Amino acid sequence: MRFDPLDYPYPSRRNCVYAARGMVATSQPLAAQAGLTVLQQGGNAVDAAVAAAAALTVVEPTSNGIGSDAFALVWAGGQLHGLNSSGPAPRKLTLESLNRAGLSEMPRYGLAPAMVPGAPAAWVELNRRFGRLPLAQVLAPAVEYAERGYPVSPTLGRNWEAAYENYRRNLAGEEFRPWFDTFAPAGRAPAIGEIWRSPGHARTLRLIAETAGEAFYRGELAERIAAFARRHGGFLDLEDLASFRPEWVQPLHVRYRGYDVWELPPNGQGLVALMALNILKGFSFGSREEPEAYHLQIEAIKLAFADGLRYIADPQSMDVTPEELLSDAYAEERRRLIGRTALEPAPGRPPKGGTVYLAAADAEGNMVSYIQSNYMGFGCGIVIPETGIALNNRGHTFRLDPAHPNCLAPGRRPYNTIIPGFLTRDGQAVGPFGVMGGFMQPQGHVQVIVNAIDFGMNPQACLDAPRWRWVEGRTVEMEHAVPEHIADALARRGHAVRWALGSGGFGRGQIIWRQDSGVLVGATEPRTDGHVAAW
């Protein structure tokens, strides 16, 4: 990746970070430091990524937890490996069981949307296949943060307070009491700068490390999860946990102006980013600050999302293949729909044929793009007592329409929003990138890649640049740093432009790219408490 390190048009809170021996970029300085500590103890980039991921469950519980799902792209041995560690629906969770419970749509909170957690299995599997250090040593920084405590950072504190107020108003059942006991033990959210500890969390992490995940999926912790679900009318049971295994998958890519952009295949939504880029490669851009550049990206994302929300599901239930959706012929068909004015997106017919993100790299050439999330902040509001295990609510994205490929079914994985990205050129790694934040993630990936490749912006500039976010129909939100003439021009083209309140919905990303010299270049978001720890 070639760029002028000082040539970008937006004021930056920081410059790119450069290092030669190793680098970890996350949304939390303490988690980045946990990864760097493991690197300096003799670990590799995979060890560092697992250390940071485990630490993030402690130091950013507003976005992820031990009950999260996880995905990873790992560059090792000169090739890219993909890991899908998203959990399926419990075997007893059916359309009929929801109907009996009086539910006409998948709820956001409670035990019904809780899928089998995948993150602990991801840590174990990554450590087993690529790691160098014992898992207990890799998870030790996370255990220490949970046991001794840490001061709450600014963005974390604001998100924690918002979550507490939401849960205080909306979560009234006895099954939600452990969440308040764990995350609001003083009857409120911890304040910015206040020390927060979670001894149950520390014990759980220690058990996962000492048993290589067995305690979580087939031992003491599994029994606690199943017993709590049974007591409160949930669906997760011991068989669901014991049968879970992460899946190594073949990553997907599109060729974009001489680079290969990589994402994981469904059930994740990385396919949306690839479809949008496949459409955009048929256009050429002038200046980033031309309305046409915004218009084309927005229209491509709308078309890609229309297809993604129609077709992406557990691969076993999809009625088209990713290859069909990524074919050049289909991209050209979708590209022809883009004109001078905003369109109402609709799916086509292809021819048959809260989240945390982190990036890590080491001096040996290993690089990791990793993401894990409970979904919607703390997840479903369920915490297993005295364990710190906050369960995800990934099942909320299931449809309850039997004709839809993403319809709820036992053992089926739902449409998943979290996606790690990776960039290569001529068969060599450029590096990991990601932008967390629900359905913003493919939109963030597209904007980062276009900024970098089309406009030659350095990694920090790619993340600093003001963003837009397609919402629905013709509605698109703009950060206030977007020039007004851009918004006015888009409105004249039929876009329903609205200005966002703050930057909370525009994602939070990290990038680590390797230069031809081997030097690592890292960047992190100005929209979060992010940090690049370098060696």
Automatic annotation (TrEMBL):
One Pfam assignment: G_glu_transpept
InterPro entries according to UniProt: GGT-like_enzyme, GGT_lsub, GGT_ssub_C, Ntn_hydrolases_N
Superkingdom of this protein's organism: Bacteria
Signal sequence annotation: none
PANTHER family reported for this sequence: GAMMA-GLUTAMYLTRANSPEPTIDASE (AFU_ORTHOLOGUE AFUA_4G13580)
Protein name as it appears in the record: Gamma-glutamyltranspeptidase
